[in-house]
């Protein structure tokens, strides 16, 4: 890489004109000659800043409604010409070097996402000359500087002012990488959009080719196990309220498992809106969940479900964490990650006493990842996210006995928790507290047994509790076992061949049972 290079001539061609005029004025002051395309040149000229039209340089008018403006050897030769190698050929053809390209592309992503855009509008927003120039300038980073985003302008000008108008090799290279990333994302948007169209031109959810763009947030010390390498990437524009929008306020470096478990804890807790909730996660499963009047009470009751598993857990809240809550948690147990939308100053000051505890802040937001992906051998499984919720009105009472109002409240709570427990999932709950959680078993009846064992170990009382099952009971044995444990009401999807046998069992035992008609497998 060569050293700092003086900017003498710049080409400005921007769709997004944010910051254009101050930039053009500053470049002019630094003695840089400005070239520009139609609309950009007009804006600069109207601001009284001297500028030359590209068409004057190419000796060709812009034509075809802007489809052809800069696709010319006088432009690309000016960007691609190598210092010391191409000087003679440039002189022979009268090609003047262009040292700086400031360019951003037609807004394809915005226009194609707008339901009011016509297909012709969308096609016209496929930028051709822009990506070509970005590639030329970025390829020639040894001599040329490129800027694709208004957020880069100030730092670039500062560097030029501090170096008599020159830009360092490191900046040129960094900006070139940004430019190639920008073009890659742009082309992915076009490819995803066009390859999602069906024979009638209607966009489908899953394109024929999927091109993803993620940006690295950080390298991780290792993956799920120490012999695996790992890194964390996020969407280019993360959805507000999702894990990738976290700020780490303190604590040790986050690990791969911390992030995976934090996602499970946060997604589960943020679904509760009516009152403070706490979710404690271990190995991607909630081991204790509760809703109560305060964050502290919610934590106390979530912890009660399974104090053994809560050790070293991820603890997430849907409300601010105050001093009492932080102090109770940190004085009592080892915690890997604490997550909340906010923390009081006193709570944060207390957390600092346990400097290793990772404290994450995730602002609330209603967004959800639209698509879930899972890697399988040389393939990718894609599905829409499991965002289906069930209202009380949708429940179908299938037994002679209907649930009481309290049972109904607890059934809805247990159902929301079961959605976040790995299948087969069984959740026992009472008074908005998990009493026992049976997760990840290959048979439903064993998950039920485990939920019972957990409750017993924690000294919680199962008789009088309700039970949620993420999928239907294939046989009556699950209901028989629940009744024997003292469960009084059941929520499950229904839909088994033997539903009648299962309903008969519930009636025999005097249980109330409701069907949701919705299944929540989670693998
Ligand atoms: N066709 C071309 O030669 C061409 N050269 C530059 N552009 C784009 O034209 C836009 C700027 O246009 P204007 O200066 O007229 O507002 C930029 O987004 C730039 O990427 C072009 N437009 C589309 O392909």
From TrEMBL:
EC annotation from Swiss-Prot or TrEMBL: 2.1.2.3, 3.5.4.10
Biological or metabolic pathway of the protein: Purine metabolism; IMP biosynthesis via de novo pathway; IMP from 5-formamido-1-(5-phospho-D-ribosyl)imidazole-4-carboxamide: step 1/1; Purine metabolism; IMP biosynthesis via de novo pathway; 5-formamido-1-(5-phospho-D-ribosyl)imidazole-4-carboxamide from 5-amino-1-(5-phospho-D-ribosyl)imidazole-4-carboxamide (10-formyl THF route): step 1/1
Keyword Protein biosynthesis: no
Pfam families according to UniProt: AICARFT_IMPCHas (PF01808), MGS (PF02142)
MGS-like domain location: 1-148
GO molecular function, one term: phosphoribosylaminoimidazolecarboxamide formyltransferase activity
Record's catalysed reaction(s): IMP + H2O = 5-formamido-1-(5-phospho-D-ribosyl)imidazole-4-carboxamide; (6R)-10-formyltetrahydrofolate + 5-amino-1-(5-phospho-beta-D-ribosyl)imidazole-4-carboxamide = 5-formamido-1-(5-phospho-D-ribosyl)imidazole-4-carboxamide + (6S)-5,6,7,8-tetrahydrofolate
InterPro entries named among the record's database cross-references: AICAR_Tfase_dup_dom_sf, Cytidine_deaminase-like, MGS-like_dom, MGS-like_dom_sf, PurH-like
Top-level taxon in the UniProt lineage: Bacteria
UniProt xrefs under PROSITE patterns: MGS
Keywords: Hydrolase, Multifunctional enzyme, Purine biosynthesis, Transferase
Record flagged with keyword Transferase: yes
Annotated domain remarks: The IMP cyclohydrolase activity resides in the N-terminal region.
Family: Belongs to the PurH family.
Entry protein name: Bifunctional purine biosynthesis protein PurH
């Amino acid at each position: 890489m060569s050293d700092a290079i003086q900017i003498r001539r710049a080409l400005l061609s921007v769709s997004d004109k944010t910051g254009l005029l101050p930039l053009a004025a500053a470049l002019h002051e630094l003695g840089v000659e400005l070239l520009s395309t139609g609309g950009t040149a007009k804006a600069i000229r109207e601001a009284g800043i001297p500028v030359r039209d590209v068409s004057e340089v190419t000796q060709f008018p812009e034509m075809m409604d802007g489809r052809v403006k800069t696709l010319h050897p006088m432009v690309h030769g000016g960007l691609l010409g190598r210092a010391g190698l191409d000087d003679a050929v440039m002189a022979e053809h009268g090609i003047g070097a262009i040292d700086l390209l400031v360019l951003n592309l037609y807004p394809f992503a915005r226009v194609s996402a707008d339901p009011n855009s016509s297909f012709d509008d969308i096609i016209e927003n496929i930028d051709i000359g822009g990506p070509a120039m970005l590639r030329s300038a970025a390829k020639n980073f040894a001599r040329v500087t490129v800027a694709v985003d208004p957020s880069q302008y100030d730092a670039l000008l500062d560097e030029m002012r501090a170096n008599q108008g020159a830009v360092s090799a490191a900046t040129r290279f960094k900006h070139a990488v940004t430019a190639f990333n920008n073009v890659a994302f742009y082309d992915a948007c076009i490819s995803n959009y066009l390859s999602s169209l069906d024979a009638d031109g209607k966009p489908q959810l899953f394109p024929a080719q999927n091109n993803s763009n993620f940006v690295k947030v950080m390298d991780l010390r290792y993956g799920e196990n120490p012999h695996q390498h790992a890194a964390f990437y996020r969407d280019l524009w993360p959805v507000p309220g999702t894990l990738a929008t976290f700020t780490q306020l303190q604590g040790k470096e986050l690990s791969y498992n911390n992030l995976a478990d934090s996602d499970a804890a946060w997604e589960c807790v943020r679904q509760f809106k009516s009152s403070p909730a706490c979710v404690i996660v271990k190995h991607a499963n909630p081991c204790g969940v509760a809703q109560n009047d305060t964050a502290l009470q919610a934590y106390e009751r979530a912890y009660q479900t399974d104090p053994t598993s809560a050790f070293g857990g991820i603890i997430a809240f849907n409300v601010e964490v105050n001093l009492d809550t932080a102090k109770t948690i940190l004085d009592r147990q080892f915690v890997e990650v604490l997550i909340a939308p906010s923390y009081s100053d006193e709570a944060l000051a207390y957390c600092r006493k346990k400097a290793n505890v990772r404290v994450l802040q995730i602002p609330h937001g209603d967004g959800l990842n639209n698509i879930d992906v899972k890697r399988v051998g040389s393939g990718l499984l894609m599905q829409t996210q499991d965002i289906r919720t069930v209202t009380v009105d949708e429940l179908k009472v299938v037994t002679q006995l209907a649930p009481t109002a309290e049972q109904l409240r607890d059934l809805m709570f247990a159902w929301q928790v079961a959605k976040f427990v790995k299948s087969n999932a069984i959740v026992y709950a009472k008074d908005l507290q998990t009493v026992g959680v049976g997760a990840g078993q290959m048979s439903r009846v064993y998950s039920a047994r485990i939920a019972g064992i957990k409750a017993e170990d924690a000294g919680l009382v199962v008789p009088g509790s309700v039970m949620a099952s993420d999928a239907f009971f294939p046989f009556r044995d699950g209901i028989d076992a629940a009744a024997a444990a003292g469960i009084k009401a059941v929520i499950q999807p229904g839909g088994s061949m033997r539903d009648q046998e299962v309903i008969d069992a519930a009636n025999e035992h005097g249980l109330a049972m409701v069907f949701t008609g919705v299944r929540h497998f989670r693998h």
